[in-house]
Each structure stands twice: as structure tokens, then as C-alpha cells.
């Protein structure tokens, strides 16, 4: 299972856990907006003078990692409302 966080830099939050989803669901969720690998540490969301657009983070633990989803954190630059709509469709 992977953790999905919604990050809103303009609100100066460090990311809010939105869902815990399977890696198969991760593939469907990010099909139209690829995930970029960031490393082993949760990234700083709010940085002075940095980007202010909302984005999502997918976190994959070492115990859950696969060849397609190595452990670590991935950034998904997608509209959070659209991503949430896709997430709700997966739950049905």
C-alpha cells in the first residue's frame, strides 16, 4: 500500500494524508500525470520563493516496493480536484 498526500504550498502545510492505496491503484491514478521520483525523504513542501502550485506526493515504503514502484517518494503534478475525483472513482 502507498500513501497519497495532498500538498498545498500556498497554505504552508507539509502535506495531508489523503488516502492509502494499492500500487495497482497508483498506476491508474497517475496514468495521465506521471510521478517523478524524489528520493527517500519526504520533500519540503513549503520553500520561501518556491513553487506555489498544489501537487500530490506518493510514498512507497520499502516493505511495499516493487520493480515498478521502488521505495521512496514521488511527486505528481496534477490538479488535486481532478486527482481526488479519480481517487473517488477507484473507491467505487
Q: Descriptors for this entry?
A:
92 residues; alpha+beta; five-stranded antiparallel β-sheet; 5 strands
Question: How would you sum up this structure, described in words?
Answer:
Helices cover 21% and strands 30% of the residues. By secondary structure, it is α+β, with helices and mostly antiparallel strands. A five-stranded antiparallel β-sheet has the order 2-1-4-5-3. It starts with a strand and ends with a helix.
Taking the sheet with the most strands, its summary is: 5 strands, antiparallel
Nearest-integer average pLDDT: 86
Low-confidence stretches: none
Please provide the ordered H/E string of secondary-structure elements.
EEHEEEH
What is the β-strand count? 5
Question: What proportion of the residues form beta strands (DSSP E)?
Answer: 25-35%
Number of helices: 2
List the domain count as a whole number.
1
Percent helix, as a range, is: 10-25%
What would you report as the Rg, rounded to the nearest angstrom? 13 Å
Distance between the termini: 18 Å
Tell the overall outline: globular
- Please list the strands of the largest sheet in the order they lie side by side: 2-1-4-5-3
Structural class: alpha+beta
Secondary-structure blueprint:
Blueprint: E1 2-7, E2 16-21, H1 23-29, E3 35-39, E4 55-60, E5 72-76, H2 80-91
Amino acid at each position: 500500500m502507498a500513501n497519497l498526500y495532498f500538498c498545498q504550498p500556498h497554505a504552508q502545510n507539509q502535506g495531508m494524508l489523503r488516502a492509502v492505496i494499492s500500487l495497482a491503484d497508483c498506476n491508474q491514478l497517475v496514468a495521465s500525470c506521471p510521478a517523478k521520483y524524489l528520493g527517500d525523504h519526504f520533500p519540503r513542501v513549503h520553500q520561501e520563493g518556491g513553487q506555489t502550485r498544489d501537487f500530490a506526493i506518493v510514498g512507497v515504503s520499502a516493505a511495499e516496493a516493487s520493480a515498478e514502484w521502488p521505495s521512496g517518494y514521488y511527486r505528481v503534478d496534477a490538479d488535486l480536484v481532478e486527482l481526488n475525483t479519480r481517487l473517488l472513482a477507484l473507491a467505487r
